[in-house]
Amino acid sequence: MNTIIGLAVLFGMIILGYLMEHGNLSVLFQPAELVIIYGAAAGAFIISSPGNVIKSTLNDVKKVFSHKGSSKETFSELLLLLYDILVKVRKEGILSLEKEIEDPAKSELFRRHPKMLADEEAVSFIKENLGVIVLGVDPDIVSELIEIDLEVSYKEAMIPAQGIAKVADALPALGIVAAVLGVVLTMGKISEPPEVLGHCIGAALVGTFLGVLSAYGFVGPIATNLEYQVKDRQVVFNVIKVAINKFDSNPTVAIEAARREIPSSLRPTTKEIEEQMKQWKGTKEK
Question: Which residues form the MotA/TolQ/ExbB proton channel domain (predicted)?
Answer without folding.
Answer: 124-232
